[in-house]
Amino acid sequence: MSTTRRRSIMSCGCNNHTRCSCQPNGCPSAIQIVGLCDPSTITFEGLDTDDRNWTEVSIPEVLHIPPQKPDIETIDKVFVQVKILSKRVIRTPISTEENAEGTKLTGWKLVIEGVVKQKVVYTAWNAVQSVHSAHFTVPFSAFIILPGDTTEEDRFCVETCVEDVFVKAINDREIFKNVTLFLKATKEPPFCPPVPPPPTP
């Protein structure tokens, strides 16, 4: 059975070019993130109505290492993949003016449900420093305001882009992770583009 150990935790800062974390031993170190998208692949044509059909969401979570796994010494790598489970067009109220956040309701929204699938690879806090992995699936929900001429029969493809992943070991058994996710909806052509395969370990 695992015993609780007290360790000092320090505040760590990193630049935008390196994924960093405060490890349980108090030392900052780079963590490889697999599954981030290339922002240049998301294009906006300027005149296309679909260019306005987007949103960004933050998905914070506390991950618990399964009881059969050993304690964390350092986090080495995180694999992330987003899967859309459902999307549906719904009616909403219509607002004539923007609210304080700049949002104006058109009468239509696309409600999106999905999951963030992830694998955390870490070095165990034991004599042999063995490497282990733990798998997690976290649900999320988001919405995109659609144009006023949308109909209930319209169907949309949803493009996902994982912009950033922040990872921090809270203690020997828990990990705080936040995923910043970009979602863009495009009125569906005859078929949706295939979902890219998950990153290989």
Automatic annotation (TrEMBL):
Species assigned in the record: Guptibacillus hwajinpoensis
InterPro entries named among the record's database cross-references: SipL_SPOCS_dom
Protein name as annotated: DUF3794 domain-containing protein
SipL SPOCS domain residues: 71-169
